[in-house]
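Reminder to self: keep the SMILES exactly as supplied, no canonicalising. Ligand is zinc ion.
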Amino acid sequence: MPHVYGNKPETILYKSPNGKKSINHVLLGTWLEVIDSNDEWLEVKTAGRGPGGWVRRSDVVETPALKIFFVDVGQGDGAIIESPNGRMLIDGGPSKNFHAFMRHLYGPTIKREGTVHFDAVVVSHPDMDHFNGLTNVLKDQNFTFGTIYHNGILRYYKNTPEGAEFDLGNITVDDQGQSYLTDTVSTLKQVEDRINTGSLMSQFKHFWVAVLQAKQQGRLRTARRLSSRDDYVPGFEPRSGQSRLVAKVLGPVPTKTSGAFRYITFADPHSYPSKSPSSSHTRNGHSVVLRLEFGAHSFLFGGDLNIPAQQHLISHYGSNHPFQVDVAKACHHGSSDFDINYIKKVNPHVNVFSSGDNKSFDHPMADALGAIGKYTKGDFPLLFSTEIARANSSSGTHYGLINARSNGTVLVMAQMKEQHNRADIWDSYTVPWKGYFVDH
Ligand SMILES: [Zn+2]
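Structure tokens returned for the bound complex:
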């Protein structure tokens, strides 16, 4: 059957082809199956999310849009990206939430097509709240994968030969006393060799074992390290005349001082003036940083960047920097460990905070909320939070999904209302947002 996509910020489905009684609102880019039509109207079915109905022909198009789902994974990051040129996952949170949401989202597609393919899976850095939730996703027989991209940093146990000096591996120190992490990997074969040493941190090892098993089962092509030396995520390069998602790799930025691949180590700013390398600052600071572009719109995924890492990127890119975007995921869940000059450079219309409750760190922090809000564009800057969007009510827990949709010219951000008032289920904002009382 033919299908179309909603092309209004909210496309309205009506009970009859007369525009009188609305029965469902779907966001820009939502897939709709056409089952009947007349001159002005199409009768459509949804992919199992809410009732179908009649939609104006002028409200839909035949070309797919960009969809970004910032999934509420609790304390962590996890995003699903769908584009005309492929699907991408960026991180998967700490637990089963991400996989559970993927089963919910792709349930109808799996029923229709058997499997769902993800061209790129990006693990921003080797911390539990980013990689661990992907282990279940990799084990799911209904999902297939192209390439797993990672920053090349491993996690060892401290009481092992590899982790004795630093739990990320060996460090070398140059004549000036600057230390570098030299022990990184790229290929699956290199990872497999490390698994066999028995020194890898157990959850990190389980993740890579799931990658290797998916490959053995023919559901995954390969894995490799990604860095600024790559320019673009393969498959997401620009091509003239095509409406496609472009994924630029801004970080990690390995050192330029020699041909060998090595990362500068970062210290904890709280330990200044000590320059002793911090394991968490080094692995967070070398997060894979992606700038996505689709038509007129841009999106920044900055992993868990921290103060020294943001300063490292600022000095690498200089004045002609690529950080300014329309929508930014706030770095490190809204930690206080940010450089204000970096925040000023990103200067988006929209920020998305991805964080959870019940942790000893209260992300997002008050100063991050204030500073990031202050340097977000316009009189009505948009700050979304997976944690705020998640709420408990008498009818249960509503998960805090944040949606970004673009057709290349119109950008809409939305979250689902916590209580549904008939068909009107979305809080949506066209970007740039001019305030509620302006006719959008
Ligand atoms: Zn994190």
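Points to follow up:
The first strand starts at residue 3 and ends at 6.
The chain is about 20% helix and 30% strand.
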